[in-house]
Structure prediction request, 686 residues.
Amino acid sequence: MKKNVFYVLILLFFTSCSSSGENDSFQSNPNNNDGNPSSDNTPNWLIPVSEVRDGGPGKDGIPSIDNPQFITASEANFINASDLVVGIVDGNEARAYPHQILDWHEIVNDDINGNAVTINYCPLTGTAFGWKSESNGVKTTFGVSGLLYNANLILYDRSTDSNWSQLRLECVNGELISQKPKLLNVVETTWDIWKTLYPNTKVLSLQTGFSRQYSVYPYGDYAVNNARFIFRPSILNNDLPNKERVYGIIDDNKSRAYQFSKFGTGKVIKDTFNNKNYVVAGNQSLIYAFELTGDYINLNFEYDFNSSEGVFFKDDEGNKWDVFGKAIAGPRKGETLTGAKSVVSYWFALAVFYPNPLIYQD
Amino acid sequence: MYPQRFIILIVLLLFLNVNAQTCCSGGIPLSNNIGLPNYEKGTLQVGLSYDYNNLNTLNEGSNTLNDNSRLRITHSVLLNTSYSITDHLSAEGLFTWVSQRRKITQFGNQNLDKTSGVGDAVILMKYNFNKVLGASSSFALGLGAKLPLGSSTKKNNQGITLNADLQPGSNAWDVIYWLSSSKNFDFRPSFTFSTRFTYRGTGTNNTYLENSTYKFGNEFQAFLGFSDEFLLLKTIVNTSISFKYRNAIKDKIDGFDLDNTGGDWVFLIPSFSMALSPNLSFSVKAELPLYSHVDGTQLTPTYRLTTGLLYRIKPRLKLGLINI
Prediction:
């Protein structure tokens, strides 16, 4: 009798396990990792695969926001004045994506005036970009691959499953290897600056479709502790503190860094980097640069933050320019300066992706 | 007869494990499964268990979030041996084979990462003090170590090293302190009240991802159990209810706390065992969370199931020593 009881118990146990929530239907997914290195079906990487890290949550373990909801600035009472947001403007539409939501989702696949836009932000390198939601010319969405390179986000596109290094600005693995994303101009600044410049801005809502504690920063003192890394980059550059936020202009594999502290209450400089001319305007909370070509090179600029008019700086021709380089008054009204390929980044990240950045000095 | 049956059952268990893609385990249950009962000098015990640990509950502190997209499973096969060197002193070894799985179900897709292989092992020396707590009582102390036998550098199919949580081993030596006591009472001799405490001081993996260090958080566990025996269908069965408290401090990378690790948990553990023969017993138990308070936001255990067989070989009676 007891033998029968034993076998029944064994059978019941394994029956319970077999209905415990794991099924084999996903085994055919070629992207699943079966723990067998020999079955590598996408072996080519532009970056050293030995330096690619598994972040821990897994692919889509940090879920992108694919159906973003927006509220007005007055309704966004969960954001403090000094909190950082990523802002984008398309025509008359201004949108802000608070860090406190991006920290938990990293990617927002949005649609602004019919234009598919992917806002992506890496909390471990402090870098945000906006780029067209396209892969190989086809509309797509991007997700969090769960992989990191030099502590920086690797996105994947849901059309081809190719992996894109965010700060390298390049597809580094998969069918679209070597392709570049089509960048859009975004700025990163404090909420009070952004809503002053764009009082009619829409703000990404906490109603993301996911259950998260957005009031809590998920990485402890990571953003301010210069000695602390969760994933240590391959090289460190001691010219500035690792976690100092800098504005970087990127050109080819080089970069030029601007410290917020150097801009104080407001400043505009003309600078040359990698044989290109730039005007860099900013204050201690916002910096943005534009490449100067043609007769723009001869203009002399001056900081002129006028929130009621949305003006960021002006020039000696009488033109007034907004933060995205659009002339909103003056003889060149309607013209737009070409935004620099740039990013706000923790110093260490800019320095590891674009080694030995030149640091702007007064 | 009985050894033959034992071998058949082991083969059956192993066969089911190897082929049971449907069964799963996060966290290898080392501290849970050390501490076999003490017997007279020369007694050898061999246990083979299967452990399935399912983590599908996402918590922020003690609040459960409405998100079951992440599933973390650890399957473990545990080989436990104990030999009584004297009537009081025994040596125990726990050896593991583990399969770790991380499955994300999101946006209509499922993504799986998994590793498997020999896991870390534990050796434990125990000393039993009889009747320290009065008649029909036992009290034992143990000191052990966790041996880093398992790989900590398993890669996925793209050659990317998986993170520490998915590795079969930790590449670190841990020290383990163990204390156990039990007491039976005259009003019902088969009723046992027992407690057990384990503390694991973890070592550091100094070659984590080649350029970092990783240290799992120190862990404390306390068990409080009540068990009783009775006859069921002419078979002696033992049922028990235990409460387990577990505290783990945060893991550390390069000496800094890693957010979203560590916490406090209370579990209820109902278990059932029965004697298949005088030397062979079968057991099954579940581990169900009653309370969880995690640091930050992290997956927390949903349930755990463990089943196994324990075979005991007693020393032969030495008649020549009988004093007539």
Summary: Helices of chain A lie at 2-18, 99-105, 191-197, 347-353. The longest helix of chain A spans residues 2-18.
